[in-house]
Amino acid sequence: MCKVNVLEAKTNFSKLLALLESKEEDEVIICKNNNPVATLKLIPKVDVSKRIGIAKGKIGSFSLEEFNSMDAEIADMFYNSELHI
Question: Are 40 and 46 in contact (CB under 8 A)?
Answer without folding.
Answer: no
